[in-house]
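User: What would this chain look like folded?
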Amino acid sequence: MFVVLRWNSVCALLRVACIKRQKHSFFICLSLGAQVNEEGKPILVYKESGKVLQGDRGVLRCMFSGYPVPDVEWISPKSQVIKNTPGRYEISDFGRVLTIPRAEADFEGFYFCKGKGKTHSEIHSVFLNVTSAPLLEGENQMQDIILPVGENAIFLCNVSSLPNEHPPSSPKWKKNGVDIEIDKEEYTVSENKRMLTVTGVQNGTDTGVYQCISENSEGILIQQAFLLVMGRISHWFLEDTFLSQSTSD
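Assistant: Here's the prediction, encoded as structure tokens.
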């Protein structure tokens, strides 16, 4: 609960912290809040920027004091006034809280909260930082592969970071959770380490789960793909079965 005390031309907003009773008297504990002038100019008392993982819920806060209590208006990084928009923006707590239910990279930036009094306004900025572990960029990244004996299997791991994040580390490669020995003839890694080639695949030794691992300041990416090496008869059988199913569909 708040009360307003006035002396001369100045008002002070006081918060009622507690009310105690002793015998036949009541004692009110007050804490001094922000001072406001008689003209009702809003004064910022609290603001909070936000940091959120991509796809999660982002929250920004602004609180103004004043008499009467100022309205709060939010403005996006693109200088657009924000309204309640299902799935995109939620404004709550009398305008003091802006929630972004699913924050994506294009939501990152400076947001502005404006305290609007009867005759004056006050505007401040808060920043929403949308972060993420490394992401895979492009098509055919870490795809499962079925190949006949003797062919080459190629795995792609083109990692990137969101804008304003540290670049991802070069990928590390594992097979079934064990580091791949790149110096072996059967494995070739591109110069930037984003492509692994398994040459002349063999049924007994190369079938398994291959992992690509990269990290940045916000987290770690572990992406895996399965390589199934089959005899040529089995492979042709699978191809014929797939083609016949496609034709019948």
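Residues 1-14, 24-36 have pLDDT under 50 and may be disordered. If you want, I can go into more detail on any region.
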